[in-house]
Amino acid sequence: MHPRFKYYPFHKDYTAMGNEFRPFVTFTHVANYTSASVNTDKLGFRVQYDADGQAIDITTLKSSYKHCNLMMGNSTSFGVDASSDKKTISHYLQQTDIPCLNLSIRGGTTRQELITFLILKQYLPPIKNIIFFTGITNPSLAALDASLPHPEFGGVFSEPFHFQHYRGFYQPTEDHTYTLRKGFYEKVEEKYGKAGKLAKKFYHTLFRLFQKKEQTALTPAPALGFEEKMDMLLSQLHSDLQSWTAFREQMGFKLHFILQPSIGWTQKKLTPSENDCYSTDFKKHKVYYQRFVSQKTYTHYRDFLQKTLAQFNIDFYDANEWLNDKKFDEISCFTDVCHMTDEGNQIMADFIKNELQLA
């Protein structure tokens, strides 16, 4: 027995206490992905170019530019379904000597936007503006039946997939429990020498009992409905916006929050191609879509944002209203419920330039 247990008998309570993994801090895209339409850099963010056509390296941004603007968001601001890296909203917002850095993550939640900023701000020169073009992922995550197993910590899309990928990255060839047992037995043999076989038998039984105890002690996932999960995510968003304002006071940038447009939220009449793509998705995921693309969800979410952002003195814009103009009825802006065509991205960028008056 280790002498620590003799001197501090309560130490046994700490050794018996296990940890639970929370696999939803954040994620990025595959690094160095190449294709005709979309490419990623060494960090997994979309390849992007400044106003002079020079490729932007996030890790050397501070030494390359005196200032920058940031675009934070999910797959829409990332530019899913744009025909090239130069057809995204952020690319249309590039200014001479002031790059608009796109830190958007496909499927990223508003909490992931804050985490991404915390990780990457060390590379950034002084920031003039942070543009949030976001919003759809919180309600769409809440609408999933199996989402938010630990809601107080937040959540991300596809948590089981990301957990398996994380596990596989560190154990590419061997089963997890086998690897642990093998390492444990090797330490036992090293310690007990000739008595290794007997010790292994004893510790194998002990290990299995401990493993069973640890597995049965895991916190069960709560059964939460859409409204409950949405309320929790909005509470977290309120907290995250408070954190953003603290950074604003310290770093001196301006914050602009744009609620992204979505079919079912905007009043825009759909073109044949928009209707064809969306109706196909809706038929396949009807119950899921009905939860988060409804006018009820939209108005509740919009009203929350208006009130909260006003409280924190953050500019608020609703891009759903931007598309309500009849002149956009004949333009195919959407490729699905929220992703945009090249034309849609250009329209959004033009509104941002006119409404936000970026300097």
Could you describe the 3D structure shown?
This protein has 359 residues and is an alpha/beta fold. It has a domain at 58-150 and 224-356: 3-Layer(aba) Sandwich (Rossmann fold). The chain has 16 helices and five strands. It has helices at residues 3-7, 11-15, 61-64, 75-78, 89-92, 110-120, 137-142, 159-170, 176-192, 196-216, 226-251, 272-284, 286-292, 295-311, 319-322, 342-356; strands spanning 68-73, 100-102, 127-134, 254-259, 315-318. The protein has a five-stranded parallel sheet. The longest helix has 26 residues, at 226-251. The N and C termini lie far apart (67 Å).
Brief overview:
With about 350 residues, the protein is an alpha/beta fold. It has helices at about 5, 10-15, 60-65, 75-80, 90, 110-120, 135-140, 160-170, 175-190, 195-215, 225-250, 270-285, 285-290, 295-310, 320, 340-355; strands at about 70-75, 100, 125-135, 255-260, 315-320.
* Number of β-strand runs: 5
Fraction of helical residues? 40-55%
- For this structure, the CATH topology of the domain at 58-150 and 224-356 is Rossmann fold
Secondary structure category? alpha/beta
Mean pLDDT: 86
Give the name of the CATH superfamily of the domain at 58-150 and 224-356: SGNH hydrolase
Give Rg in angstroms: 25 Å
For the record, give the distance between the C-alpha atoms at the N and C termini, rounded to a whole number.
67 Å
Q: Which strand order do you get reading across the main beta sheet?
A: 2-1-3-4-5
Question: What percent of residues are in strands?
Answer: 5-15%
Please mark out the parts with pLDDT under 50 across 5 or more consecutive residues, or reply none: 212-216
Q: Specify the CATH class of the domain at 58-150 and 224-356.
A: Alpha Beta
The biggest beta sheet, please? 5 strands, parallel
**Molecular shape:** globular
